[in-house]
Backbone:
């Protein structure tokens, strides 16, 4: 009995297989299509649409303007520039407050307190000069711009404008093998790359999403803007008379940012035609109806979802970095500290790329946060070139109030115009910060793509600095 | 070292790295390809070819085998000898016949090949020109278990993207049905069931003409040197050589499909149309996406706005505005007349 059933089951299966051949190759589609067809026929009969004309027309009127051939791009550039300008202009003030509170006021109090309780020098060094100071630095530089940028961006999204930006920009990104929504994640990257990587979730095509993740690092994030601005004002602004210095250095910074967009498109193009060629890809872009933004809700979610979340991760990563920075400057082997050993050893190599050992070390130990690169560079320069009377001691990061003083320290460290230019290029093209690397891993769940996103920009950075340096030395001698 | 010589070294390093890692033409990928072309691969290819000959009732001798595998006659003879030793084929008259063991071996390779082609077509965005070559490599590497797993993931397909039936895991394959397009007469109608993907240059031209399995054709004229037929309202002329690469199932009722399908990409802003269907050339995720959005027969679409750069265009579909690129809109067949009241 049992045996008989088994045989007949096999027979049924084999019969079913033969019949599937007879059904032809479009069976799957036919079934899907007829399900939809049936559903839409039923819906057409039973669902009555309440005169939706009026709202549609309103949307259409706005759309005709924001996607028009002549006004579309100017409106977009104006709105995005406005968002960036408000961010930069408004963030300076609270940044100054937080810095003076956490760094200028609280740090000495903590130091004195620790001394009063009788902490050994190394313990207060590691904890206060290392861990505390680096966290304080990251918070003061990072928090205000993020708290301003993300809510504004989210409001634009909530209103419904951002999908129109993606719609307008799609043709450019299509040519680079990417998705129009990459314009949005790229803009988000100008605020914070980690947030930009999370934002790629809006791209619903696997290949284009990976492209957006890998190239997000080419957007100059807000931890790198201050570096660019400082170095540009010292070395590029210094080339022209003080009347033009502001405009020229601002132009140089914008130039680096535009170069970043250019690299992002070129790399997208190359990726979509090489390693990512086979990944599945599908395009569609919903243009949701406009609606008044829900301001309070937006403020709340962007503060919790983006600002606090990213900040928390940055703090988690910055804390050990602070400890590490303090340790390399204070652990001595023989006469020299670990930092000096590394700087002396790597200097000849770094010179090939027009950089120096200090910069290499700063970029290695400041991987957790781009914000602390400049303070670390200054601290290391003071240590390695033995300048007296500047800074706050070995392993204690600092920044100088005047640009002229900063310039003096850097020039004493052997910096030239070429070093400045290379630093600006290297600041654009180097590995993402550890928060971003971790986020990329969380989003892609793939070691391979995380590695590519990490090492591709740094290899490009070294190559571009190398060629810039050699051509420069050949021509400018 | 002087900047000039450093620069030179830099350029040499970049060129060297490009030479090694360049996709498809670089040393690394050439080496991989070379390593793949082992004896096992040639044996399996020869077996597959002989099976195909039997399936289509063509007699294939030593020279056709050599020609098909792009190897010398001596080498082909050696391979055929080896296959005989392995008990997979036996000679018969001028040609060879597969033993039962040979048949089941060949069917297994064909199954893996066609499953992989189907997988590439549905789950990746690899170009249709590359499926066949990629599957030719993969069929020798993929284990039976791995192939079954993939088949399960993509819904146990029974046809590959060229219209060929996929043998079952048990080794069943339907009889070779259908006739050559070149064998049809004037007034006949049929549905394309298969487009032969070898040789590649013929396949590519047929693809470039927009032909695909599942398309209905209607023979308009047959003369000595050419065959003229209508496919989706378009008149296509082929030489018998090209036509022989196309297999069709004859249709009893000659449904005369002569009105040319219009494409969604041709819809001007403000115009409305009814969806007729999605071209079978749009596959996998993209096809499912369009279906999800409501691009099914009977749906009314309106072209609403153009992006600032002209492409994509926003269409009103089932109460939502969806941006669709020109390329994808070119896969969607529409009828403008029905709604032009």
Residues:
């Amino acid at each position: 009995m049992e045996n008989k059933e088994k045989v007949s089951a096999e027979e049924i299966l084999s019969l079913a297989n033969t019949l599937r051949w007879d059904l032809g190759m479009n069976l799957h589609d036919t079934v899907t299509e007829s399900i939809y067809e049936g559903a839409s026929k039923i819906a057409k009969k039973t669902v009555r649409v309440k005169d939706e004309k009026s709202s549609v027309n309103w949307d259409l009127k706005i759309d005709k303007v924001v996607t028009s051939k002549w006004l579309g791009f100017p409106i977009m550039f104006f709105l995005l520039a406005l968002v960036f300008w408000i961010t930069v202009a408004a963030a300076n003030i609270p940044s100054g407050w937080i810095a003076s509170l956490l760094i200028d006021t609280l740090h000495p109090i903590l130091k004195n307190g620790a001394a009063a309780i009788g902490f050994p020098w190394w313990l207060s060094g590691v904890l206060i000069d290392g861990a505390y100071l680096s966290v304080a630095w990251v918070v003061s530089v990072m928090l205000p711009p993020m708290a301003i940028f993300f809510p504004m961006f989210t409001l634009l999204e909530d209103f419904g404008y951002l999908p129109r930006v993606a719609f307008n920009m799609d043709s450019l990104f299509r040519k680079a093998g990417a998705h129009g929504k990459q314009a949005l994640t790229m803009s988000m990257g100008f605020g914070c790359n980690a947030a930009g990587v999370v934002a790629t979730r809006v791209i619903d095509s696997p290949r284009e999403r990976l492209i957006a993740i890998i190239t997000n690092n080419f957007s100059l994030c807000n931890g790198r803007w201050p570096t660019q601005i400082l170095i540009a004002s010292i070395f590029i602004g210094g080339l022209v008379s003080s009347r033009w210095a502001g405009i020229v250095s601002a132009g140089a910074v914008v130039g680096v940012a535009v170069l970043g967009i250019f690299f992002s498109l070129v790399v997208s193009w190359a990726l979509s035609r090489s390693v990512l060629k086979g990944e599945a890809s599908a395009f569609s872009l919903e243009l949701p109806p406009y609606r008044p933004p829900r301001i309070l809700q937006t403020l709340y979610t962007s503060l919790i979802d983006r600002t606090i979340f990213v900040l928390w991760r940055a703090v988690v990563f910055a804390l050990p970095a602070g400890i590490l920075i303090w340790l390399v400057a204070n652990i001595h082997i023989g006469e020299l500290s670990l930092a000096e050993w590394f700087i002396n050893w790597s200097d000849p190599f770094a010179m090939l790329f027009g950089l120096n050992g200090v910069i290499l070390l700063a970029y290695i130990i400041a991987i957790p946060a781009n914000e602390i690169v400049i303070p670390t560079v200054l601290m290391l320069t003071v240590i390695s070139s033995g300048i007296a009377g500047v800074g706050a001691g070995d392993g204690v990061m600092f920044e100088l109030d005047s640009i002229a003083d900063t310039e003096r320290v850097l020039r004493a460290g052997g910096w030239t115009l070429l070093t400045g230019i290379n630093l600006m290029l290297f600041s654009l093209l180097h590995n993402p910060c550890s928060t971003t690397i971790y986020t990329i891993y969380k989003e892609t769940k793939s070691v391979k793509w995380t590695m590519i996103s990490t090492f591709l920009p740094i290899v490009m950075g070294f190559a571009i600095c190398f060629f810039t340096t050699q051509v420069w030395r050949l021509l400018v001698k | 070292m002087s900047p000039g010589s450093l620069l030179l070294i830099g350029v040499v390093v970049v060129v060297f790295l490009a030479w090694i890692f360049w996709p498809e033409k670089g040393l690394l990928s050439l080496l991989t390809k070379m390593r793949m072309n082992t004896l096992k691969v040639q044996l399996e290819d020869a077996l597959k070819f002989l099976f195909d000959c039997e399936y289509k009732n063509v007699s294939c001798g030593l020279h056709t085998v050599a020609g098909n595998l792009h190897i010398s006659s001596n080498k082909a003879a050696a391979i055929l000898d080896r296959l005989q030793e392995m008990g997979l084929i036996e000679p018969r008259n001028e040609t060879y016949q597969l033993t039962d063991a040979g048949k089941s071996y060949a069917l297994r390779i064909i199954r893996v090949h066609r499953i992989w082609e189907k997988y590439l077509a549905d789950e990746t965005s690899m170009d249709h020109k590359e499926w066949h070559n990629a599957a030719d490599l993969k069929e020798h590497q993929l284990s039976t278990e791995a192939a079954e797993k993939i088949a399960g993931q993509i819904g146990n397909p029974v046809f590959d993207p060229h219209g060929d039936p996929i043998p079952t895991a048990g080794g069943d394959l339907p009889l070779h049905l259908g006739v050559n397009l070149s064998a049809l007469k004037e007034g006949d109608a049929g549905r394309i069931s298969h487009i032969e993907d070898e040789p590649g240059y013929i396949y590519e031209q047929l693809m470039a003409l927009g032909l695909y399995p599942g398309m209905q054709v209607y023979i308009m004229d047959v003369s000595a040197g050419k065959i003229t037929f209508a496919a989706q309202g378009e008149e296509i002329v082929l030489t018998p050589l090209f036509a022989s690469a196309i297999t069709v199932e004859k249709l009893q009722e000659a449904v005369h499909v002569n009105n040319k399908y219009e494409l969604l990409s041709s819809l001007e802003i403000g115009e409305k149309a009814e969806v007729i269907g999605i071209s079978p050339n749009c596959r996998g995720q993209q096809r499912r996406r369009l279906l999800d959005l409501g691009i099914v027969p009977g749906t009314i679409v309106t072209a609403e706005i153009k992006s600032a750069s002209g492409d994509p265009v926003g269409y009103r579909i089932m109460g939502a505005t969806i941006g669709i690129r020109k390329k994808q809109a070119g896969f969607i067949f529409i009828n403008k007349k029905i709604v032009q009241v």
Summary: The longest strand of chain A covers residues 285-287. Residues 72-117 of chain A form the longest helix (46 residues).
